[in-house]
Amino acid sequence: MTGTGGVAPVQHCTTAADCGPPNACGQAICEQNQCQVKAVSCDDTDPCTEDTCEDTLGCRHRPLALDLDGDKHKSPRPGFAPGAPGSCGDDCDDTNAASFPGNPEMCDGIDNDCDGVVDNGFGYQTSSLAPVRVSALDSARSQRDEGGLVATPDAFVFTYTGLYDDPVTQQRHESRLKGIDAKGSALFETPVSDVNASTYAGPVAWSGRDLATAWSDARLDGNYEVYATQFSAAGALLRPAARVTNSENFSLHPSLKWNQSEFLIAFDDRGSGTGPMDRSQIFGQRVAPDGSLIGGNVLLVGDDPVVEYPAISIGQHRVGLVYTSDVNNRSQLGFRVFSPSLAAAGSKPLPFALDVQSFSVEFVGDRFVVLWDTNGDVRGDAIWAAAYDEDANLTAAPRPITSGAHMARSQAALSLGDRLLVVWADDARGPLGSYELYWQILDLNLNVLVPRQTLTMGSNGALNPALVVGPGRKIGVTFEGWASGSQQVYFTSLECAPAR
């Protein structure tokens, strides 16, 4: 792939010396009394690199296909299916060394052989172990909120917000990164940031080598901006926080994903309005594996007056983006698709789902599945879902995918290759509003394959699940519960089992 770097502006000259000093990306010459730049070509003719030029360093060739998990199989370059012509790699999951073409399939929640199906012929069951509190014991209250959950080869790693006593402000919120084993025992825990300001948990991603997290805080004159940093698999800070945004007003609600080559961040930004809560737009930012920013902020959604809370998911060829927009003070969903470089692609579907409370998006098989709950005059009694292909065409119309409850809320989903695992909270087995977690499995058309199963019961309420495949052949689940008398973060799991 090709690219060139910095060039000098056109200006009047008599000799080349009038055009300023040369740089590594272009030689300035004087032709017909005008400065012209003869740009350096950085094309290495290798489709598996991104070629750019930096003024002081010259041509740079960043690999687009990586082997960060060390299984000797490279990931495909963004926008390509594993093993497809021009993909540069055939690894279907470069964040996990147990997943590569030709590896024998086993019951562990992973597509070991890269055939597109997870745990061929196996099923799942709720763990027999009781949920374990995993938030710090000295936190007065802890929230999973916008925090995330990922897995390294040896740990489940999550971010959460803890509330602590503070001698100056009385109370402060602190974003924390924590690693636990398959039983929920602590392996490491560290603050995400050491700034003298409250910080709130943001998403976390795993590249197969490093952990990354993004969040917003108000360290600069009370103005919230988005920051990102990286940690080792053992929780050691690798580099200082990088400032992702520089806006006149608030930048909030980052969503973060690894696309097998780089990190992608989406966030909402109020920099174009006259006040912090006026007009908001959604932007994206590419981040290299070493944490450096690739280019600047890219406008993703700017044609609606108030758009917020972006959530992104990585498909084989596209990036799916779900967000809320405000229509007469009623929140509805929007969905769009973008290229791996965050250029707009495909069509813009009509808005859907009024009175949305929370939502998520997961790529499964060949489509993006959007899930949400509602909160109008009364809380909705079901979790809803719809599906779109990678060109943003509707493949499954919006429909309820759960039933049997008075109120349902806060869902999460995990792709199993050819089917979808969904975890959510509702009050099907108790009094109105007594939330516990349940799970079921859907096919690609949102039909129920495995009906409702209980995940938590008698835990004094459970909300806001997150789930990921992790060590110990388990699908780990973090959630908020009240078993200890205050809101805290807990861990439980699903275990792979022979199909019944």
Can you give keywords for this protein?
mainly beta, 0% helix, 5-stranded antiparallel beta sheet, 500 residues
SSE order and pairing:
Elements lengths: L25 E6 L2 E6 L9 E6 L3 E6 L58 E5 L5 E2 L7 E3 L5 E3 L4 E11 L3 E11 L5 E6 L12 E3 L4 E10 L2 E9 L10 E2 L7 E8 L4 E7 L11 E7 L5 E9 L5 E8 L4 E9 L2 E9 L5 E2 L6 E3 L1 E9 L2 E8 L9 E6 L4 E7 L7 E8 L3 E8 L9 E8 L4 E7 L7 E9 L3 E8 L6 E11 L2
Antiparallel strand pairs: 1-2, 3-4, 5-35, 6-35, 7-9, 8-9, 9-10, 10-11, 12-13, 13-14, 14-15, 16-17, 17-18, 18-19, 20-21, 21-22, 22-23, 22-24, 25-26, 26-27, 27-28, 29-30, 30-31, 31-32, 33-34, 34-35
Q: How would you describe this structure to a colleague?
A:
The chain is mostly beta strands and 500 residues long. The chain folds into two domains: 16-63, no CATH class; 124-498, Methylamine Dehydrogenase, Chain H. It contains no helices and 35 strands. The protein has strands at 26-31, 34-39, 49-54, 58-63, 122-126, 132-133, 141-143, 149-151, 156-166, 170-180, 186-191, 204-206, 211-220, 223-231, 242-243, 251-258, 263-269, 281-287, 293-301, 307-314, 319-327, 330-338, 344-345, 352-354, 356-364, 367-374, 384-389, 394-400, 408-415, 419-426, 436-443, 448-454, 462-470, 474-481, 488-498. The strands form nine sheets. Strands 5, 6, 33, 34 and 35 form a five-stranded antiparallel beta sheet that branches. A hairpin with a 2-residue loop joins strand 25 (356-364) and strand 26. It is globular.
Question: Would you summarize the structure shown here?
Answer:
By secondary structure, the chain is mainly β.
CA-based gyration radius: 24 Å
The helical percent reads under 10%
Structural domain count? 2
Strand content: over 45%
What's the overall average pLDDT, rounded?
90
CATH architecture of the largest domain: 7 Propeller
- CATH class placement of the largest domain: Mainly Beta
| Main sheet specs | 5 strands, antiparallel
The CATH topology name of the largest domain reads Methylamine Dehydrogenase, Chain H
| Count of runs of 4 or more consecutive helical residues | 0
Shape: globular
Number of strands: 35
- The CA-CA distance between the termini, in Å, is 50 Å
CATH homology superfamily name of the largest domain: YVTN repeat-like/Quinoprotein amine dehydrogenase
Unreliable stretches covering 5 or more consecutive residues:
1-8
Structural class computed from helices and strand pairing? mainly beta
